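Hello again,

I reread your note about wanting to compare the complex against the isolated chains. To keep things tidy I'm splitting this into two emails, and this first one only covers the full assembly. Below are the input lines as submitted, including protein chains and any nucleic acid or small-molecule components. They are followed by the predicted structure of everything together. The single-chain runs will come separately.
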Amino acid sequence: MTPSSLGALRQIAWMSLRRIRRGRMLWLSVVVLALVVGGAGVSLITGRGGLDFFERLLDLMLRYIAPLVMMLHASSAVSEEVQAKTITYLFSRPVPRWTLPMGKFAGAVLLGLVLLVCATALLYFVTMLGEPDALMPEIGRLGRALAAVALAALAFGALATAFGTMVTGYSFVAALFYLLIVEVGLALAPGWLKVMAMTVHLRVVAGIYVPSTTLYMPDPRLVPSISLVVVLAETLLWLFIALTWVNSSEYRTDK
Amino acid sequence: MSEPRVVADRVSKWYGKVVGINDFTVSIGPGVTGLLGPNGAGKSTFIKLLVGALRPSKGELQVLGERVWGNRHLLGRIGYCPEHDGIYEDLTGAEFVTFMARLAGMSAEDAARRADEALERLGLAKAKDRLLGQYSKGMRQRAKLAQALVHDPELLLFDEPLTGCDPLARVQITQFIKDVGQAGKTVIVSSHILHEIESMTSEIVLLYKGQVLAEGNIYRIREMIDEHPHQIRIECDRRRELGQKLVLSQDVRAIEFPDEGALVLETHNPDACYPLIPRAALESGIKIRSLTSPDNNLQAVFEYLTRERSPEGVARQGRAA
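Full-complex prediction:
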């Protein structure tokens, strides 16, 4: 008996989702997202709100909150199995090795999508209470924002899965380190260096990217369709790294 | 003789500079076979090679007539229970075993049914809906065995299955392994305790420092073990006086006084010596506090067997002849 690759993928994603649901990381993500939405609600009392405020908070979501949420769920992809030694069960079954990180990725992205899309939609409606007349006319902005957070779930989910596959100890710290040093650093870099940052392209897709001039170097002008392709390509690249790594590694559990 | 199910031909596995197993040649047929050796002998490494978790550094390894590494289809014919305690603590027993059955390619209905049967067979029917994190060590061990068995594999690999189990779980697991072997499956069980292996099978492979020291029927291996001088440690009063009496017997080869209040005698004929000791003590009015055989320690036997196989040991045997 040998399961189909798709069947194995589905089983691992199911198991991953079930474990996330019972773990603490889900609650941590909910608390982080609730703080952002709750903070927006509190700001309404002080007279802030409206479309500009939503876009500022969306910028925060795309730069930091979405990557953090995805890292909480996906950066333990293979590493938690190695740490708990449960990987020995999975690798003793007739399933392709790549189904492990892909299944974990699928589970984390599914959950991340639901959390981030719901939180972003809620954020829009809460902030627009400060500018109720613009709520429906500007609903198209919400559509682009939701597309951007969905892409963020995919892209950062893939990045975190790659780290969780390559680094078997402290994979969350390694992924966070990459995010804060490399990703944030690139996003703040002047000129064309910026185009290497995923968050820049996500902001282009969301329609909140405003080119300026840093260190006398003008930022590039980017179009959403190209940014969409770049983010998807980066997602595939990170997944390819994870799958190649898992296929060639022994993952010792007796150290 | 039936066809061997596992054939290792000069297999070696190195972890960098550390040797896991070295030039390992063995052939294992159906029924229960025990892998016996002290910690670090290479038992787990060999089992992990069999299940394809490790890639051999050298040599040929065939399981059920197929090569192992990278051959995922073969894994559907193998059930593996690892030695470690790692388990999905946040899944229930039923979820875990069903999940493992699904990964073996079973349909949802078959997986659920077979998982229930496997858990019931191992006495976990009542606990199947509890989280594995709430299971005792013995229950976890049985859940691990259930997942190995659930897809009805031809070859079962149990790595130290009795470690940490309470006496009741030991009896249940030992019986379970014997039953599976009698049902015609090929079962390979590892342990560092001779008594554990003896309770499951008479076919054993002796491992030491990554090499096969001996293989075959346990009685033949016991004979080999019995060929080497047997030591008896006696804790008593007036040990020198007792030693003087015992050394007169032709069955006593040597006597040592390793520490205060004890003497150790060496013999090739333990059956004759065991009645001799209390008789000698009784005649001299010496009180014996304890009588033990350090040779029951498997490590001592392994060290003796490897010493005899070393160039120095061969030379010694030549001189004796």
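For quick reference: The beta strands of chain A are 213-214, 217-218.

B.
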